[in-house]
Amino acid sequence: MLYKKAIFLSLFLLMQQFLKSQEYKFIPDLRVRYEFIFQSDSTDARSKKSEIMNLFLAKDKSIFESNAKYKYDSIVSNYMKLNSRIIDFDAIQKPQVWISIFKDFNSNELIYSDRIMKYKLFYQSNIDKMQWKLLPETKVILGYKSKKAICYFKGRNYTAWYTEKISIPDGPYKFNGLPGLILSIADTGNQFSFNAISISRSKSKEISININNNIKTTREKYYFDKIKIIKGLKGNNGRSPIINLNPIEKT
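Structure tokens predicted for GLPGLI family protein (251 residues):
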């Protein structure tokens, strides 16, 4: 059975398209840190977990990824620069969330990448255009007067709070299109939320998302391809990743 699964996974990977040497990078102006709370099982409220996420922002570009992934990639990159052949991966904190999202508002391009064990997936798409309804309510978040907005996105209803004091129409994950930076957003089912916990000038000289040799898929096929990889890894010394029963995008 394991042999058949190994063959299936190998064939699946061979059927995918690969891109050579693609890297998206820019010099960020701001770094916004969010607490991301997510419920991995839609039927079990006890399955909620949290991860600190970074949103690196320039005027027309951004990268969103977990703080642990940012540190993990930096450590691995430094090892590579030193030509070190031995990396103690067990000593490096591993992220719970492996996704990275790059947005380029000039080209209307979005790059979404993810990692399942040693396998990396990515897809390209246009930046989603969200139909926001602006509401009159206000509150203060991190010292910024914030306004309320609601929208429906990929199977869920969301409530967001944004500030016009930072006039960048961006936010965590794929959220964008408001008259200012999104500081807080949550679905009405209380299963996913992003709440800003700090805003600072970025100290990074350059930030990048690298999709060298990643497995190319599409947004429509992404979740199914991810499941195929996970099923192909089942029985791998008990280290197979758990299938997420509650993806943030339901449609």
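Residues 34 and 196 are 4 Å apart (CA to CA).
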